[in-house]
Amino acid sequence: MNSKERLVTALNHQQPDRIPYDLGATFTSGIHANAYHKLREFLELPQPLEDRFLCLDEQIVFIDEDIKQRLMIDTEPVLPGNPSTWNLLIEDKTDHSWYRNEWQMGLKMPKDGGFYYDVVDNPLAEAGIDDLKYFPWPDPYDSTRYATLEQDVQQAAETGRAVIMNSISAGILEMSAWLIGYQRLFTGLLLEPEFLTALFDKILDIKLAYWETVLQRVGDKIDVVIEADDLAEQRQLLISPRTYRKLVKPYHKQLYETIHSRTGAKIFHHSCGSVYALIPDLIEIGVDILNPVQVNAANMDSAKLKAEFGRDIVFWGGAVDPQGTLNSGSPNQVYTETSRNIESLAKDGGFVFAAVHNIQPNIPPQNIMAMWQALQDHRY
């Protein structure tokens, strides 16, 4: 099998020749620039001339071809381009770097001890419903965004790896939180449902237009569609199942039904945390793949998830915890935890190997390679 065949086989809940491996195809299964530089040094590979960022905010880099071949990575990412109305302009301040993204959010990364760009300016924090009409929303039809789309997809396909098409933005709930602030989002679900409905409508419209444009052009040439919406933290859901089903689920359902109607690609939904209670809902609305499989969160034991949902959803991630063992454990501990989760998740397909989340800046390369070695030693 080549990489594409291997991953597609696993996504169809069949056993491939070996477990497919993703590193760097999505914003939530990548590696921080700092850790990437250390890994290249450990593997005695030259450093790139400059970092190319898959996700600037989280400092997640594109993986170079030498690493892809060395580690036998099975995935190839594709991203939309920047629109004609916005260019990245990073301002270098005394103690931080700062920029404004195309959604008008201000983001800042401290120079002393800063590893990521965090949202510090919520542009719709004080907005009312009428203000939404005049806000400078991203234009999903901007042709510049898609100027190299077919070429990028073709080049990705020519690698023999599975083609992973990324989204225009984070999820509807998550984008709302960044636009208006988390406090207003959570109180607004109870106190401002009309405003939030109008906001959700606008974000959904942008997403639908984006995916309709992308899938009309390359829907038959991609293997996985990436979408996301964080619905939980490590102990519990962020909102109640009732609130999710009433106010958010209908938007996910419309989005995923539209995507499925225009492509045979599988839908990947990212949600951190203890999302166990909503997995049946995600399956119902057409989610094919759950990421990141946060096995250190409540009710997210890998064996339990495979037993209950393994026939209906693919688990992408869940190999080892970057908050705990992968970060601060020994290579032997990393190998042991990774092996245990592989044994829980990989049988009969339906599993794509990746760390629970992005490989963080302080994770030692020895631990990354212990995780990788566990994958090599466990084949079905």
Task: Provide keyphrases for this structure.
380 residues, alpha/beta, TIM Barrel, 14 helices
Task: Describe this structure as you would to a colleague.
α6 crosses α8 and α8 runs parallel beside α9. The mean pLDDT is 97. It is globular and about 60 Å long. The protein has a single domain, classed as TIM Barrel (Alpha-Beta Barrel). A hairpin with a 5-residue loop joins β5 and β6. The chain has a seven-stranded parallel sheet. The protein is an alpha/beta fold. Helices cover 41% and strands 12% of the residues. It is built from 14 helices and 13 strands.
Mind sketching the topology for me?
Layout: H1 3-11, H2 33-42, E1 53-55, E2 60-61, H3 65-71, E3 75-78, E4 91-92, E5 96-100, E6 106-110, E7 118-121, H4 129-134, H5 149-158, E8 162-165, H6 172-180, H7 182-191, H8 193-218, E9 224-228, H9 241-262, E10 266-270, H10 279-284, E11 289-291, H11 302-309, E12 314-316, H12 325-328, H13 331-345, E13 351-352, H14 365-377
Parallel strand pairs: 3-8, 8-9, 9-10, 10-11, 11-12, 12-13
Antiparallel strand pairs: 1-2, 4-5, 5-6, 6-7
Helix pairs in contact: 6-7, 6-8, 8-9, 11-13, 13-14
Give a quick summary of the entry.
This protein has helices at 3-11, 33-42, 65-71, 129-134, 149-158, 172-180, 182-191, 193-218, 241-262, 279-284, 302-309, 325-328, 331-345, 365-377, and strands at residues 53-55, 60-61, 75-78, 91-92, 96-100, 106-110, 118-121, 162-165, 224-228, 266-270, 289-291, 314-316, 351-352.
